[in-house]
Protein 1
Amino acid sequence: MAETFRILNTLNDYLWTYVVIILLVFCAVYFTVRVRGVQFRLLGDMWKVIADRPVSGKKSKTEIKDEAEDELKKIGSFQAFAVSLSSRVGTGNLAGVASAIFIGGPGAVFWMWIMALFGAATAFVEATLAQLYKRRGKESFYGGPAYYMQHGLHRKWMGILFAVLITITFGIANQIVQSNTLCDALGDAFSIDKRWIGIGLCLATIAIIFGGIRRISHFASIVVPFMAIGYVTLGVIVICMNITQIPAMLSLIVKSAFGIEQAAGGAVGIAIMQGVKRGLFSNEAGEGSAPNAAAVASTSHPVKQGLLQSLGVFTDTIVVCTCTAFIILLSGLYDSGYDGVLLTKYALESHIGASGGFFITAAIFLFAYSTIIGNYFYAETNIRFITGRKSAVNAFRIVTGLTVIAGSMMTLQQAWSIVDIAMGLMTIVNLAAIIQLAPKAFALLDNYMSQRHEGRDPEFHKSMMPDSEADIECWE
């Protein structure tokens, strides 16, 4: 077993150093330039979309039509946003950030910020494409990278490859990390055997995922805002308690990011690697996961959901991950030898006492549980793409429960080894697709801005695309 994980780590290092990071940085910068920094200049529109309010303040014809559609189609922009955020805002924000600092030092935080700021443009492109090529289903709209690969690039083989990779990544590997982190936190707090925690988590997960996308979206829309606001509030309290240390901490982050305070020449590379890896694990920009949630929304223009997914990247990394990083760095425990959620837990306890440990335990439970639910949805969407059989979906629901139990029995670094290689491979396939389809997203953004400048609430119809014969199903 040890030899297997050694091989996986070697493969991970090569894959991320020479392929994934280069592609992620290239796409993030290229898309930011090409969409003229849409993630910064249309922040106001993002908040209007999340409130289900058109830019003009009036309902568009498309939205009025949506209200008359079958009730099963009514999954709004906010619910779709909540599903994607339930996957983004998870243990990556607590354990992932802690592991990045543990391995890469404080400088890893800087590179997480950089990837989020530029990566939000990548998230915009992939989510907009998911909306453009979404399909109609019995329960809701559905779509994602596998679908824009088939209907946009006309390469079903590529869609199947991606569907297999995302199912492995989110349906199995990612679930192991979430379960491992949750069981570690609960086991440490209450001295309970992690195997029993894994069994309980398995049953709680199955209770939600057998209810389908409507139960998943409803669950996420309630739990995600509650847990995110609570955690950010605590982070702000800790920052205020240590306000005089903020300048020194920011200086430490910047100096560590460029190796100024490190003796080893490879320190900068390690910081960048960990910042990008854990940043991608947390905000998922370019990975191809969030578009699966973006596709289910009923909205008047594809660009609206693209904007909302960009906001999700900011919310995840610039807000929630930063809270964790500041809690850890302000505690001074970042080089104490603790890793993962235990580092975050003990750091918070150093600020507010034993109650911090109980708060982190509760936060981990909500973060990990909601992420397990969101991850399952991504896998289910792609299993439907591969087979379309209800029996396959039900079988995978059982596999998800067993995976959650398995995660309770592994170490954190073993879990990261599995998720990193799976995440890297699916990211490569997704980026290869959106680079080719990006002109469609650029054209949609031009269309959106043109209508907006005319004072109208933007709405889209298939005939507005330059290539009106494209395989677009839901925008007649």
Protein 2
Amino acid sequence: MVLNYIWIGFFLIAFVVALIKLIFLGDVGIFTEIMNSTFDTAKLGFEISLGLTGVLSLWLGVMKIGERGGMITLFSRAAGPLFSKLFPDIPKGHPASASILMNISANMLGLDNAATPFGLKAMDQLQELNPNKDQASNPMIMFLVLNASGLTLIPISVMVYRAQMGAANPSDIFIPVMMATFVATMVGALAVCIKQRINIFNKAILGFFGGLAAIIALTVFIFQSLPQDQVNVVSSLVANIILFCIITAFLVKGMRSKINVFDAFIDGAKEGFQTAVRIIPYLIALLVGIGVFRASGAMDFLMDGMKAVVGIFGGDTQWVDAMPTALMKPLSGSGARGMMIDTMREFGADSFAGRLSSVLQGATDTTFFIVSVYYGAVNIKNSRYTVSYALLADLAGVIAAIFISYLFFA
């Protein structure tokens, strides 16, 4: 419903702005530009969707090998000590713990198709433990804030779209996304821990976040000491080594588990093809709406206003060009994706704005969509402080994405 209003809003605002330009500025070509943009962006959306087929099939095929080979189970076991402390209200050994761990692990690996069923199953199981069936329980709130923070180890979809938009190295945003999404998750989790009076100094919680923070701090220190022209080279090398090691680990684990690795890959690749075809109408609709909004000049008015405010305080304004992605992300993942693609199309995939929009896309998740779907599935009417704490995590991720992108790409 939210996306419906946003999409209609693009056209209505574009019409008003174009009418003002025609009447007061005498811009007789504005409506021609708008209509041309609808044709151009519709063609772009179709081409991008078709181009996604091969890459999505490849990655989802690899992920299916990891799923059948037991890699998700290994991730769940490794995360067990941490998540058992984050959800103290869940009885030891309750099946909800396993569902939560599987959901978080699938999200970290970018397995959206697997993550959502696990998440809905977890909500059903948490609702069984919930004494007030109309109100969100503490474990539910922690679970959804972790989901909304978008903790991701492999931002597959972002890299895929960067490849489609002609990025010289689509994986150069891999480490920045990982760092930004960690900040979002840490802020969201710690805020909920404080609210729910969970001991944040527990060894498992402190060890996990402290260890990741130390790794990220070391990464920042190393990159700050490098010449700027070497930052991209080193980060890209590390990212590609990690990605290839993950693929290799999935294959080795699949062979050791004696699964048919090839058949698993084919089944996953089929899902990739179906996904690529399924998103065609959505991507075209959103890109056309965004294209109309931008062609009318409404986007320029909004961004120029933000730049003017930032400029008053003497700040650099490069980051403002990527903010449409950040503003859209809590409302709609597909809408934010459309904004990211539009930013890369407008400024270039390897521009600062193009890279920052990619990092912003991977740094957080769709808060309102997640809350509505997961709570709606179990008829929760009172979400309590879920949305406010999830948006706090989103804000932390956006701020971190901006600073980290300046470190890596400025």
